[in-house]
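agent: user wants the structure for Hydrolase from Aurantibacter aestuarii. delegating to structure tool.
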Amino acid sequence: MKNRVFMYLFIFTLLLVLFQYINSKSIIEDYDKNLKTAENRVEVYSDSISMLKDKISDLSQFDLNYSDDAISFFQDNGIDSEKLMPVVKDALLSMNMQDGDTHPIIPYPGGNGNRMLLNSVKFLNHKWLIADFSDGTLWGEILIGYSIDENNDIKFKEIETLLYPYQRY
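agent: tool returned. relaying C-alpha cells verbatim.
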C-alpha cells in the first residue's frame, strides 16, 4: 500500500513537472516572439529617426536659427537675433496693411481686384529672407534683403521675385 501511494505521488509529480515544462516553454516562446517584434520596431523607429534627423539637417541648412555665422554677425553688432526676427517679420507683414492698390515690396499687381499680400516669412541668414505672397488666385515667392541702420530702422529691398503661372483646378 505504501508503495502505491509513492507510485501515485511520483506519477502526479511527474505530470505536474511535465505540465510546468510545457507551460514554461510556451511562455518563453511567446516572450521571444514579442522580443523579436519589439527589436524589429526599434530598428524601424531608429531608421525613421535617422531619416528625420537628416531631413532636419537639410531643412536647417538655410535657416537663421541654425546659422552660426549669421548669429555671430548679430552678436558682434550687439543685436539679439531671437528678439530681432519677430520685429523684422512684423515690420514686413505690416506692409500688408498699407493703403494702395499695390504692395510696397511685391512688384506684381493683384488680379480680380485683390491685392497681393505676404503670407509667410522665413529668415535665411542675417541679410536675406524669403516670403510667399498671394492675391487668392495668383501666388509667388520673393527674396528680400533686409538691413538695420544706425537708428534701428529696418530697410527692405526686393532681390528677386517669382510669380507662378495661373492654374485652374
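agent: one observation worth passing along. The beta strands are 117-123, 128-134, 139-148, 154-163.
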